[in-house]
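Morning!

As promised:
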Amino acid sequence: MIELQNVCKNYGLTKALIDVSFSIKKGEIIGFVGPNGAGKSTAMKIITTFTAPTSGTAKVGDFDVLKDPLEVRRIIGYLPETVPLYSDMLVNEYLEFIGTARHLNGAFRERFDWVVEACGLEPVLKRKIGVLSKGFKQRTCLAQALIHDPDILILDEPTSGLDPIQIIGIRNLVKDLAHEKTIILSTHILPEVATIADRILVINEGRIVADGSFEDLIQQVTDRSSIYIATECSKKDFQSAIHSIPEIEDVVFDPSTPRGVVGCHLYYTAKIDMIAKLNQLIRDQNWDLVEFQREKLSLEDSFIRLTKTSKPDTEESEKPENDNSGEEGGTE
Amino acid sequence: MNDIAIIFKREFRTYFFSPIAYVFSVIFIVLNTSLFMFHFFFFGNADMRNFFSTLPLVLGLVFIPAISMRLWSEENKLGTVELLLTLPMKTEHIVLGKFLASFVFFLIALAGTLTIPIILIILGRPDFGPIVGGYFGATLLGAFFLAVGIFISAFFSDQIVSLIITSLVCGFLVLIGWQYVPMVIDGWIPGLGEFLYNYVGVTRHFNDIERGVIDIKNIIYFLSFTALFLYLNAKALERRKY
């Protein structure tokens, strides 16, 4: 449905996208994830024909974004990050304008009623857009993207600036639409898309750094597994006992455990039945077990790891030092 | 065709919702008629020579930039340019719709100055040739300046910047049609001033039409420059970098 091949985009000297290729099948929900300025919006702008790629090809449906932009625009519903609204118009006037501009003609009334219902715009239909709250503005703009019943929905940070209840509302709406449409949504908060996206593309500094389902992604980040264990024994005994399992690579003690209890995270990469081994150890040592659980690496964990891989660490660590010296110079 | 009408409708409506438009049309009408009346009472001639001789400068420096500044700058600022350019419409049609909306608004303001010829008819017996020619020339001149203004507004998201640049460009186009400006330029680069005077500056062409001499060359001058800037505007938007 959507296919990008070796797409590059430069804004002057800045490289916003570097050799980006991916393809999206019909009906998939894709989460674009990356820190601010990673190139998510640029990729979306290329798909929606708003900006042209510097090199490479992008196809939407069977149409090239450069050769048949009008055909591409017809099948796409787009919610830009900036939430473009004419603040002097009423909500219904705005939707009517978009409806006529998208040539809905006879089908307009029905679609209009549907989006008003789906986006919950009933109470503000006759209000001026300029005075609406952020949530209603976002929903008005979402209604604009849905009014022509597009096959493809591109949502650039649809939940930014919304409160948790509104975020759930938008998430549910996206879920409802999922069966019939291909959806791309971007966010810089990974958990937000983890629950609804079939596939996640992680973009950082203009490159795709990871592509796959949420589970794949975590696998890709690290093969490490982790188990948390807390027992009643002395730290010394525990340490020496744990060393009898050579597969454990890293032991991180939990400082918050009460006196007499040792808690720690055990990290390992080997594909062995670690639980069985630990069970054996606990039985041998005659420990009283307080807590034992297999740990899932958190989303943030994997996300931070992904986006850090391509960053040169040296620059970052040097910066604060320079700032400090500058400030000192100023005060003297 | 339909698309042009859709954009035109929205754009035209906005003019009547923004206070700036009203303020500027009132200033335009008051300024022009009072400038005219000053001379009219002084010399007592039943013609509009004075009115049309100051018109290009008033239009170019103030009025046209004020109409055209918001056309794209406002869209850039609100981000709605992203919405507009991802609608299934040809960019040329969107540009044309916007241009026509501003053009019709300009014509309405220009029509506000028709009180002058009405007064002249009541008070004297004016020669209609130059008056009709003058209004015809003003229409063409307005179209040309608006095309320049809409082209410039696409590059900025600040309306005031668009206004200032447009009035600089339009002011230049008027000034190089004044005899001594091309003479000075000719002093630096022989031939350039003459060329600018004949082919680029608006004053000579406007004055010809205003005298009542409707020469097809002058009409082609205005129409081709208008079309050129509208075309450039559409191309600039399609090749936008941001």
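Confidence is low (pLDDT under 50) at residues 309-332 of chain A.

Hope this helps with the figure draft.
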